[in-house]
Amino acid sequence: MKTYRHITVEYSLANKIATVTLRRPEVHNAFNPQMMQDLLQAFLTLSADEQLHGIILTGEGASFCAGADINHMKETASYTTEQNLADAFQLADMLHTINACPCPVIARINGAALGGGIGLVAVCDIAIAVEHARFGFSEVKLGIAPAVISPYVVSKIGETNARALFTTGERFQAAHAQAIGLVHNIVASEQLDDAVNKAVQELLSSGPHALRASKTLALTVGKMSYEEARNYTAQTIAGLRVSDEGQEGLQAFLEKRKPQWLQTK
């Protein structure tokens, strides 16, 4: 286990899964500059670990993440424009690093996710929430906007939902979060770990390089022209088919046995 000032990183299942836990429960895991730096550094390190099949992101205590820390927001009120820009870029860099992490990231949403906390949900690949979780883009109530998180959120929930939820700042339930594509699965509190573990087992049963290639496809092909997508996707599948992993996966399927990446689990 590696402990940063405001987060911990733990490994499990023979170091194939990492769990990143936000550790500021006294302020509902709201992030300040140190937490953003901790998350950035942790995900940079995890991104370089080719053994990982997945990362779980969650919060300690009753909440997932309440967005920006109120004390830090008070400080930014006296910042210059240049200082505010630097602060916003830090958040942008953190979100980009998590979003671009090569292996899948699971959001284990154990409670409320507000403001920037929804940004964290949006940069995860799989989002599983407890049924009592509440969400909301509360920025507008403070005279600001969910600006830095917006590229990731709009990509997940679409323009029409963003136009309504960004401007009203209304709180919404997990069921609505699922309906608009922010959350994939909703479970009772006592079933959260089982649901997350089920997702983990699915990741572990998949080829590690295929996992990463599939995530890259999901993130990129929708933004490509036809010709770009044609070339990229053909090269991707051709490369995977002739790779050691692709050959092993096909052979295991034909021989009705487990592939090597499961045998060495």
How many domains in all?
2
Structural class: alpha/beta
Estimated share of beta-strand residues:
15-25%
List the strand order in the largest sheet: 1-2-3-4-5-7-10
Q: Regions with pLDDT < 50 over 5+ consecutive residues?
A: none
- Helix % is 40-55%
CATH topology of the largest domain: 2-enoyl-CoA Hydratase, Chain A, domain 1
Strand tally, please? 10
Counting DSSP H or I runs of 4 or more residues, the number of helices is 11
Report how far apart the termini are: 20 Å
- CATH homology group of the largest domain: 2-enoyl-CoA Hydratase, Chain A, domain 1
CATH architecture of the largest domain: Alpha-Beta Complex
Main sheet summary = 7 strands, mixed
InterPro entries: ClpP/crotonase-like_dom_sf, Enoyl-CoA_hydra/iso, Enoyl-CoA_hydra_C, Enoyl-CoA_Hydratase/Isomerase
Protein name: Enoyl-CoA hydratase
Pfam family, one: ECH_1
GO molecular function: catalytic activity
Labels describing this entry:
265 residues; alpha/beta; 2-enoyl-CoA Hydratase, Chain A, domain 1; Lyase 2-enoyl-coa Hydratase, Chain  A, domain 2; 7-stranded mixed sheet; 49% helix; Enoyl-CoA hydratase; Enoyl-CoA_Hydratase/Isomerase; catalytic activity; Enoyl-CoA_hydra_C; ClpP/crotonase-like_dom_sf
Secondary-structure topology with pairs:
Layout lengths: L1 E2 L3 E6 L4 E6 L10 H15 L6 E6 L10 H7 L4 H19 L5 E5 L3 E2 L1 H7 L3 E5 L3 E3 L13 H19 L2 E3 H6 L5 E3 L4 H13 L3 H13 L5 H17 L1 H11 L5 H4 L2
Parallel strand pairs: 3-4, 4-5, 5-7, 6-8, 7-10
Antiparallel strand pairs: 1-2, 2-3, 8-9
Helix pairs in contact: 1-3
